[in-house]
Amino acid sequence: MFNVVKAELRKLRRPTLFFGTMGAALFFTALITSFIYLMIDSPQGNSDRGRSIGREVLGLASGSVNGFSSVGGFLGIIALCVFAAQTAQEYTYGTLRNLLVRQPSRMKILVGKLISMALFALIMITIAAVVSIANSYILAPGANVSTDLWFTSDGFQAIFTTFVNVTISVIAFGILGMVLGLLLRSPISAISFGVLWLLIIEVLLIAVKNSLQSWLPGAQLSAIASGGSLDLTYQHALTVGGMYVVVGAIVASVLFVRRDVAN
Amino acid sequence: MPNTAISVSDLSKKYDDRLAVSHINFEVPLGTVCGFVGPNGSGKTTTMRMLLGLITPTTGEGHILGEPIEHPEKYLSRVGAMIEGPAFYPALSGYENLMVLAKLGGFPVERVQQLLDKVGLGDRGKSKFKTYSLGMKQRLGIAAALLPEPKLLMLDEPTNGLDPEGIQEVRALLRDLANGGTTVFVSSHLLSELEIISDYIVMLRKGEIVFAGPIGELMAQQQPTIIARSLKYSDLESIVEIAEKAGHHAVIRNDSVHILAGMEWAPVLNKAAFDAGITLAQLAPQLPNLEETFFEMTGDK
């Protein structure tokens, strides 16, 4: 298993992939965090779907991580793309047969891949957390937001909790990407389907019938990153989102282990 | 310690209603070079995939280095393979691609540069795989197959895309490996190459074994051929008629007639041709080579 992780990390550290992904994470984090502070008085709101996060909320002990938790969904989409591409490319390049000749245990390949990509995601989440908190700290005075409570013990507790929630959410998004990669066996198909579903189909479905928000996978995983929302409790999101991930992972693993490698 | 590197019994693979490999049986002794031949779609790659645990056989059993093919984890650490051409990550260099496989298999990383040097890619190891020519990709595939210092090397068309010099190098490499005790199981369309290096031959046609055994035994089964060439191309048909009247199968290939007959019949043909007003420019015996034997046995031409 350890050998699989080491081999996978060699692929993930490729500069184009590594810096491209980290750059995208950094860009979205800086952008979304900045919006919260720069648009604080905007009538259009400063958060998703026109919502507003006021000075009193940002001034709480958990205020430093509002931006970071808001960006969790975007980090999840990035993770979904990376996990899906890294998994499906083994089929399109035909490299899966090389991997299986060198490591015949298919579950070890799968779990090793997951661990290495989770480590990759963890680096991305850490960078996003640092950038978001630093950006918030820099922009807070200009937006008349108090930062007095941010670095108290409650503040650090909030940072830790948010970090854990974002990590769970991002890795769950990644696992769904991996499932799509294994099922569709093409990076383009897997990424297109995943992104299309999360950014368009889910949004449209929720716009048509708001109660679907409680049951669709993207909404659950985004809610986990935010530690729950007004419409979705954290517990509910964790349960429903977890079910999507577990069922998807079981189906994809069984297929991966049993399916002939004929390309 | 088994004395066969590969042994296969009643092995079949069925895709929906198509039998890709049909109840095949063969053995490859340790330390030999075994040529695996058959027309396109005859089931060579499917058989290799089953032997490597990539696809599950529908029926039958097989053993690699004494271990059952249901448990590839017991033998793959001693097997090197390149199936259906070299497959690597295009954005990684040749060196990085081999490093991925070396890490995965737990092989010493020093072997990577040694193998790149061995296959003639020592100075191009840092270039991205996508910039390699077909011949270079093939060489990298062979290097990857050699990573585990294999007891059994399985190569599917290793000389595809190689220039004559490269083909000669691969031939020498395979012979060296066999001399060092490695069993080489190699499929190739270059039958003349296989004839030079192989001790054993396994021949497939439409998923069935046509022949499996020592190459000498295969050649001994074949009838000798007389090659007859006339001064005038238009006389070739008449030579065919003369041979067939005498009960010998004859075909025109390029500018000569190939007649399945022993050399003792050559004087008879010579006289019959002379009587028919045909001047023969060449009348020579030819022992069948692997290519002709292949076409004869597989009925491909």
Largest interface: A-B, 25 and 31 residues
Strand content of chain A: under 5%
What shape does the CA trace of chain B take? Answer: elongated
Strand content of chain B: 25-35%
Fold and architecture overview:
The complex is a heterodimer of chains A (263) and B (301). Chain A is mainly alpha-helical and 263 residues long. Chain A has one domain. Chain A is built from 11 helices and no strands. The relative contact order of chain A is 0.14. A 6-stranded mixed sheet of chain B has the order 6-7-8-3-9-10, with helices on both faces. A 4-stranded antiparallel sheet of chain B has the order 2-1-4-5, covered by helices on one side. A 4-stranded antiparallel sheet of chain B has the order 12-13-11-14, with helices on one face. Chain B is built from 10 helices and 14 strands. The two termini of chain B are 42 Å apart. With 301 residues, chain B is an alpha/beta fold. The radius of gyration of chain B is 23 Å and the shape is elongated. The model of chain B has no long low-confidence stretch (mean pLDDT 87). Chain B folds into 2 domains: 4-220, Rossmann fold, CATH 3.40.50; 222-298, UreE, C-terminal domain (Alpha-Beta Plaits). Classes of the chains: A mainly alpha (263), B alpha/beta (301). Chains A and B meet through helix 1 and helix 6 of A and helix 2 of B.
Q: Could you give the topology of this structure?
A:
The complex is a heterodimer of chains A (263) and B (301).
Chain A: H1 2-12, H2 15-38, H3 55-58, H4 66-70, H5 72-92, H6 96-102, H7 106-139, H8 153-184, H9 187-208, H10 217-225, H11 234-258
Helix pairs in contact in A: 1-7, 2-5, 2-7, 5-7, 5-8, 5-9, 7-8, 8-9, 8-10, 8-11, 10-11
Chain B: E1 4-15, E2 18-29, E3 33-37, H1 44-51, E4 59-64, E5 67-68, E6 79-82, H2 94-105, H3 110-118, H4 134-146, E7 152-156, H5 164-179, E8 183-187, H6 191-197, E9 200-205, E10 208-214, H7 215-221, E11 225-230, H8 236-245, E12 250-253, E13 256-260, H9 266-275, E14 280-286, H10 290-298
Parallel strand pairs in B: 3-8, 3-9, 6-7, 7-8
Antiparallel strand pairs in B: 1-2, 1-4, 4-5, 9-10, 11-13, 11-14, 12-13
Helix pairs in contact in B: 2-3, 3-4
